[in-house]
Amino acid sequence: MATIKVTDDSFDSEVLQAGQPVLVDFWAEWCGPCKQIGPALEQISDELAGQVTIAKLNIDDSPMTPSRLGVKGIPTLMLFRDGQMASMKVGALPKGKIVEWLAEAGVAAPGQG
Questions:
Q1: Catalytic annotation on 34?
Q2: pLDDT above 80: residue 1
Q3: In 10 A of CB 54, how many CB atoms?
Q4: Which of 6, 31, 40, 98 is catalytic?
């Protein structure tokens, strides 16, 4: 399962009303570190399919949602569970750190659960 694209219009239905945890990557085309973590997020999306949805929100195309959530810098990763933000990380993280963070937040890591 690949990452999904969310917008201001689809954020509530795709993220807040999702049946499983959703990791939202707030990014922009001009952001170098955002592009660095893109492939890692795609891999995590495949590895943790059925446990977490990875969504990407372009802050230039959809500025309302990041503003509402107080996103100050990108990349910002927010984990949502049951319509609430459960955890947040700012900055580019290596894949291992993202998986570790998800495991700490209660989303099963590969090979566990």
A1: yes
A2: no
A3: 24
A4: 31
